Amino acid sequence: MGPVLVVGDAPRGQLAPGSFEVAAAGRTLAEALGARLVGALVGRGLGPAADAFLAAGMGELYVADGARYEPYSGEEYVAAGDAIVGACAPAVALFPHTLDTREWAARLAARRRTGLVTDCVRVAVDQNQVVMTKPVYGGSVIAEYVVRGVPQMATMRAGACEAATPGTVGRIVPVEVPPVASRVRVLQEVSESGPAGPRLKDARVVVAGGLGVGGAEHWHLVEEAAAVLGGAVGASRAVTDLGWVPSAHQVGLTGTTVAPELYIAIGISGAVQHVAGITRAKTIVAINRDPDANIFRMATFGAIGDARAIVPAFVERVRQLRG
Amino acid sequence: MNIIVTVKQVPDPNTPTNLLTIDDAAKRVLAPAGIPPLMNGYDANALEEAVRLKEQRGAKVVAVSVGDDGARDALRRAIAMGATEAVHVEDAPDLDSSSTAEVLAAAIGRLAPFDLVLCGRQASDTDGGQALFGLAELLGLPAVSPIKKIVEVEDGALVVERITEDGTQRVRVELPVLLGVSSEANQPRYPAMKGVLIAKRAQIPTWRRPDLGLGATERRVEVRRLYVETREARTELIAGDSPAAIGMRLAERLREAGLI
């Protein structure tokens, strides 16, 4: 049988943590199937990222490295992915779930005439089948899928599994990718993320605000709480729609799905779409004026009252406690 | 400009969790009878974008939907919002992404020539977000998604803004192209009474697989099992005499729990 392929994510040459999670999922799967584990990276200036990823226990790491992969263009990545799949003929191919893999893994599956399940929280072998699991219907229902086709493909949600520990170090195999007649040209890239803070989807602590924060003029409360905890700032869709913060901060099924150790929801009622994005958070804290708010159904700790009065006291006390 | 918009009828995404039921034999999720299904939210954004182009520049907008009779409701809604015409392709309402793409590609192939195919970035039932890319592959089109804005319409090209993990890309794409539209693009209009009346009288043809030269469905992704997972946390409420006291106590409690 073909190997299990794990494809890392290395935007601007920086290996994203999700890469190691997918590597871990792939390793477990390869062991269960009695298959080899191989990896792949696509991007520009991948030297250090490739060395780091190779250490996650793969026999070979297929690397497509070149200026054509930055800025990201779906056409170029699909071509690279197609060449990689051609080179290693995997039985299973796993990717971190990002806005980019949403495009190019989906297109690659179509080009290879195989099936893909996006945004999986689990990929495992059961009764000799590779089973892909993902929440559907806003997270209310869990669906298990089986892919017909080769390779069996899945993109995996950040935080779906623990990151891989170092394993045997294999070798790097450069991949030749035929040129693409591109019909898409990136004119400009703008980064909207805040200064220095952790990326929302990788953050161990996320502090998110909703309408209950009370207005754009009070949004600093959310930012201060995030800053004091060293966390990322999240927001409900209602708040990003109103323009209090850029949509890059939106947490939920339609924004970023997060899996932090600690998720603090300030003034967020907990609409289905939002809650679906935080089901993998380990501990949820809800601060809300409405004791019947849906968010309390999944919160470990709850504080009922006006966020504008609770949060400043909370931030001040955290500051004292952390010295 | 000829624009195709794909739309899908989905269960209301705000249906309370406990009202969804699972048909184990058919491996389908059933929405409660009392809550009517509706047009997928992102598809409404795609349609709104098309209708705006029609109003600003003149365009023919054809809405296409695959599914059972429910799909016709989404198509009537599309016409009510301003689509020029609509085509219903009759098939199972729960095809996998690649089968959906196959059927849509066959139908859209019949509607050629076209300049632009607009889809929602994903549908709120399974949030797969991949039928559009399968469709683009079969039609041989470039595809860009998720789109938050169509910035400029040039001769033979569009400039659009695509959402990235940490911001935005401004991208120039040659026509014809397929775009996956996100909710940032617009606020879909509520159909005016005139539109509703037009939609009521509109003739919506139904095409079937054999009409499109398609054989039996071959799914590439099969549902193995569906189940409901309940996550009911037992919430520990933080007590205090005042909001400030609650805030301070919350910090202390999280510290005790080793969380901060």
Please report the number of helical segments of chain A.
Answer: 8
> Whole-Å distance between the termini of chain A?
56 Å
Terminal Cα span of chain B: 57 Å
As a whole number of angstroms, the C-alpha radius of gyration of chain A is 21 Å
CATH C-level of the largest domain in chain B: Alpha Beta
Q: What is the domain tally of chain B? A: 2
Low-confidence stretches of chain B: none
CATH class of the largest domain in chain A: Alpha Beta
CATH superfamily of the largest domain in chain A: HUPs
Shape of chain A: globular
Strand count, sense and barrel status of the largest sheet of chain A are:
7 strands, parallel
In total, how many domains does the architecture of chain A comprise? Answer: 2
Please give the share of residues in helix of chain B.
25-40%
The largest inter-chain interface, given as chain pair and residues per side, is: A-B, 95 and 85 residues
Taking Cα atoms only, what radius of gyration of chain B do you get, to the nearest Å? 22 Å
| Tally of individual helices of chain B | 6
Spell out the helices and strands of chain A N to C: EHEHEHEHEEEEEEEEHEHEHEEH
Description:
The complex is a heterodimer of chains A (323) and B (260). With 323 residues, chain A is an alpha/beta fold. Chain A has 2 domains: 4-174, Rossmann fold (3-Layer(aba) Sandwich); 200-321, Rossmann fold (3-Layer(aba) Sandwich). Helices cover 26% and strands 27% of the residues of chain A. Chain A contains 8 helices and 16 strands. In chain A, α3 packs across α4 and α5 (220-228) packs parallel to α8 (307-321). The N and C termini of chain A lie far apart (56 Å). Chain B is an alpha/beta fold and 260 residues long. Chain B has helices spanning 41-57, 70-81, 97-110, 131-139, 193-201, 243-256, and strands spanning 2-6, 9-10, 21-23, 28-30, 38-39, 60-67, 85-90, 116-120, 143-154, 157-164, 167-174, 177-181, 206-207, 221-228, 236-237. In chain B, the strands form 3 sheets. In chain B, strands 11-10-9-12-8-1-6-7-13 form a 9-stranded mixed beta sheet, with helices on both faces. The interface between A and B is large, with 95 and 85 residues. β11 of chain A pairs antiparallel with β11 (167-174) of chain B, so a sheet runs across the interface.
